[in-house]
């Protein structure tokens, strides 16, 4: 029976192009590990929970800590190179850097999509290797640049991570400026979004993923802002939304817009896998040539 359900699932889930395995698809969708649990697909990192916790007591004031974190894809060069930084709970952090600097990879490492080849990542004061990916994902919302959307209805997509009432779904859609998607079809929340969300634009898909992430009330939200996808929802609105929904929510945004960056509590400047500067917008304008260059060119739209 389990096999049959698995086959059925694979047939209806057109996400093979995004990730190769059911477990990985669950991970990529953030909070979708329920799928893996239902199908009894073992988490590949289950053994990690057995790692002895040898460090100091968890410090819940620090939402994220990276200690000398390095990462490479297969045998390639270091994509993250000895990154060290800490993010306090409730901080707004922007990550900027030239294309290929490793910004998206950093977010992937924070949610244990990948484990570093060296160093330690702590979420809420605890080494993530002591938790399963689903445990890490329970508190950390992740909205990727090309946020995956399942074939199914709007409601299906909104309630994948946690259950929500129709009223909550509607509010979540309104919050991310997606009510017009709801109005487009007489089916309302039962409207089909098509394979991989083809009936939605890239921006609508990402905002749907943001609504899904916020419904799960994460303590930390990771947002990979693309230059075009969040056009219908500016950063100030995202921030207001997070402020109103979750006091003390920590926000880490891979930023491509100056408007996102200027009000951040701290900006991390990455270049070729390394953290080359950090500070506020004003500080970095004074101290970092790369940041000045980014602010002048890439970040300005
Ligand atoms: P952008 O601003 O263009 O999105 P980025 O700073 O987010 O770039 P990453 O996407 O993290 O950079 O990529 C960092 C480096 O890792 C790049 O050289 C990229 O080619 C490489 N890379 C990213 N994903 C993979 C992968 N799955 N396999 C192999 N190499 C990868």
Automatic annotation (TrEMBL):
Question: Where is it located?
Answer: Cell membrane
Q: Where are the transmembrane segments?
A: 4-25
Major localization listed first in the record, in broad terms: membrane
Membrane topology designation: Multi-pass membrane protein
Cellular component, GO annotation: plasma membrane
Q: Which residues form the ABC transporter domain?
A: 64-297
Record keywords, A-Z? ATP-binding, Cell membrane, Membrane, Nucleotide-binding, Transmembrane, Transmembrane helix, Transport
Signal sequence, renumbered to the chain: none
MF term (GO), any = ATP hydrolysis activity
Which family, according to UniProt? Belongs to the ABC transporter superfamily. Lipid exporter (TC 3.A.1.106) family.
The name under which this protein is listed is ABC transporter
Q: Which organism is it from?
A: Cellulomonas persica
Shown residues within the full chain: 294 to 594 of 594
